[in-house]
Amino acid sequence: MHRWKRNLALPVTMVAIALGFLISLQVQTQKNVSDAERISAERMIQMKAVLSNSLAQNAQLQKEHHDLSEKLDLARQQVGTDPQLLVHLKQLQMLDGTQAVEGPGIQISIDDRNKKVLFPLRPDEISKMINTLKLAGAEAISINGQRIVGSTDVVLSGSSTILVNKVPINRTEGIPYEISAIGDQGTLLDYVSQLDAKNLKEYGGMTVSIARKTIRIPSYKGSYTFQKAKQWDALSQ
Q1: Dihedral sign, Cα of residue 158, residue 162, residue 167, residue 172
Q2: Residue-wise pLDDT tens digits, 34-66
Q3: Where in the sequence is the domain holding 74, given as residue range(s)?
């Protein structure tokens, strides 16, 4: 009898240990599940808070976008109706050459096809005359229909073709080149006749004539591009 009890004690002990282990494992598993549920619930609360905050920010941004759009539309309407703004816009267009202009001035005709001419009119001679006209206060200048603006370049292409604004300037019939300038007629005439025209006649052998007249100068047909320059706002510095 005692021997049977001794033989049974070991298995019972092993079963008890196994049951204890299983119970302990179940308790730990339940604890882990509870912790996971708690963490998941906390994360859900955080996600809801983030979502709520994002929705609030989005609503605020939409409101700001709506307000700015209304202000922009109002500004556009003011530009289109405010007489002072329209006048200022026209003045800016006249300054940058994108507006055709008309006014008193002079027209310079240069013929370099005489037998006395050893060398035809050069780009640097045209540039020099343009600078003289600017010095004399010319408000607008063109050569053979090409408006002179800040970015204008006068260069030689090949052996005889002159490019202005990267466009070949065509010779009108009978007169190779015509330079027109709007400004004070007397001042423009004095500067050109005493400087560039005199040199082209005496040293170049060219025929140069200058006439006072009402001048019409076309708008600049090219485009302004800025690769390096950008707007600088001193107030934001």
Answers
A1: negative
A2: 655 666 666 667 666 666 766 676 677 667 767
A3: 1-81
